[in-house]
Amino acid sequence: MAPNFPEPQWFLALDRLMAVRGELFRRIGYVETRFIVRVLPDEGGGGEERNQEERNQEERNQEDRDQEDRDQEDRDQEERNTGVAMQGYALTDAVALAPGAAASFDADFTICARGAVWRRMLDEIARGGRPELRHTLNSLALIGDELWLESADQLREDKFYRFNQSLQELFNLAAELPVG
Amino acid sequence: MPTVPIKDEHRVGTEARHKVEPSAYLQKLFQSGTPDLGWMKETGQWGMHAKPSGLGLRLKDIEIGSYGVVPERGGKHLSMAPRGSIVPDNVPSLGFTINNKDECWADNVTELYEEAVARQWSSARDIPWDELKPLPDDLERAMCQLCTFLTEVEFIAADAPTRWMSRINQDFFEVKLFLATQAMDEARHMDVFRKRALANGGGLGKASAYSELGLKKIFDAPSFSAQTGRLHLLGEGFVLTIFRQGEFIAPSRVDQEIFRRCMQDESRHVGYGTMHLRAQLKSRPELAEEIHTELDDAERILLEIFSEPESVEPMAVLMGGGLAHFDKGMEMQSQLWRRIVGEYLQRCDSAGLDRRPRCLLPTDFAKLVS
């Protein structure tokens, strides 16, 4: 079964594609950074915000679904963090992080967005090989309302810009992944 | 071995102004045929085996043994004799004036140099120029005016620091290597924005007297660190945000690629400047006042630049997506102004400079008017 974003396996699948497309990444230049991809629950949905009635209703509705769908739904309602380390022209680490454990990953920056924003970007990548002009990682982070960066140090946050072409090309490889 | 032919060999040296007697060593060598080989015993630390990392043999991989020690004060010989070599007594001085490490060093400088070398790009090869399509007149004019501004200001970050480069003690060669990549980056930025202005039916727009004043002040900065404050911290930080905006406002993938690649380069320059000032202010806290004074003036000039229509309006037209959406563009511009100021102040924090109380830049764009 194809991995889902932002599971570590999804990033590791990108890593394998990165190896196949090695020439592209070598031409752009090597990367040395570690970052976290944070997927926040969609507005009006998210775990702690949901009231009990909604939970009960959802539980009733899920009775007819299979276990896999239930797991996926639960994941969509929680904040999810995946730590990614890039070294050279490869991912050297991709690991799921509990929300409270993000600090232990010592990331240069965290890219935060709600699930819907990530899904829109990945849908656009799937359709056209890259996101629409104003939906790139940098463009979204610039405006900062749909996707934003978090970092304790501007210098470390600046690695998002220093390696931006490589990061965007990495995400663009999702066009070649089977739909999870 | 066959003799290498040299054209008109019989004329070589017939009008030479100097006569050089063969040295005692050469005379002995040719008479006895026995090499001296004394140089084989005059080496720096011997037995070094630098190991390449997965990314090849980088500068940090050869920072081993005594060769990895960057002195706090550069060699008194003031020559280009390589750090770690045996330096003869009679080397002539090149008169370096930046001889203390803290005057030029940044702890990330070798990392940034290697990164810069690895991430070079070509404006001719890597920009998909053939995808450039005609734009509505207002967007093309706005893009061309923005490109004019960037063509005008970018090369200062090559011209100005390289004036100091020749004054930096050669023992801090890593800094010189990095500044050389910065000069190359800026050459590419100047060329790519000039190309963009001429590539789609437009051309260059209006230059700016205020921009020129800002450039002159960078050029005339009294010290390398003072220049770094003006250039890297404020100037390049400001342009970095423009490049980030550039990718957002890009009406085509061509423009998007240009701005994104320039953004990566500019981030390295800002990274060096911030870390250099951090090192400098740590060792010489009294320098903070000099940097503040430079920034007082640089911020004032930046505000004057942003008081001209050719600076404000092209961005608003591009942000809004056309002249018809100018108000929307101005609104977005206001939001981004906050980002420019916010990131600048955070870089000052990172450098160890508490700029907030003294900062002339209003956090609200509308206050530029009041």
Folded structure, characterized:
The complex is a heterodimer of chains A (180) and B (370). By secondary structure, chain A is an alpha+beta fold. Chain A has a single domain, classed as 2-Layer Sandwich (Nonspecific Lipid-transfer Protein, Chain A). Helices cover 44% and strands 21% of the residues of chain A. Chain A is built from 9 helices and 5 strands. In chain A, a hairpin with a 1-residue loop joins strand 2 and strand 3. The N and C termini of chain A lie close together (7 Å). About 8% of the residues of chain A have low confidence. Chain B is mainly alpha-helical. Chain B has one domain: Orthogonal Bundle (Ribonucleotide Reductase, subunit A), CATH 1.10.620.20. In chain B, 54% of the residues lie in helices and 0% in strands. Chain B is built from 11 helices and no strands. The radius of gyration of chain B is 26 Å and the shape is globular. The relative contact order of chain B is 0.10. The model of chain B has no long low-confidence stretch (mean pLDDT 94). The chains are: A alpha+beta (180), B mainly alpha (370).
SSE layout and pairings?
The complex is a heterodimer of chains A (180) and B (370).
Chain A: H1 8-20, H2 22-28, E1 31-40, H3 52-62, H4 67-76, E2 80-88, E3 90-97, E4 109-114, H5 115-128, H6 137-143, E5 147-150, H7 154-157, H8 159-162, H9 164-172
Parallel strand pairs in A: 1-4
Antiparallel strand pairs in A: 1-2, 2-3, 4-5
Chain B: H1 24-32, H2 109-118, H3 137-154, H4 156-165, H5 173-199, H6 209-219, H7 224-249, H8 253-283, H9 288-305, H10 309-320, H11 326-351
Helix pairs in contact in B: 2-5, 2-8, 3-5, 3-10, 4-5, 4-7, 5-8, 6-9, 7-8, 7-9, 7-11, 8-11, 10-11
**Mean pLDDT metric of chain B:** 94
Radius of gyration based on Cα positions of chain B: 26 Å
Order of helices and strands of chain A: HHEHHEEEHHEHHH
Discrete helix count of chain B? 11
Distance between the termini of chain A: 7 Å
Instruction: Work out the strand percent of chain B.
Output: under 5%
* Low-confidence segments of chain A: 45-58
At CATH level 2, the architecture of chain A is: 2-Layer Sandwich
What does the main sheet of chain B amount to?
none
Number of strands of chain A: 5
Stretches of chain B where pLDDT is under 50 for at least 5 consecutive residues are: none
Shape type of chain B:
globular
The CATH topology annotation of chain B reads as Ribonucleotide Reductase, subunit A
| CATH class division of chain A | Alpha Beta
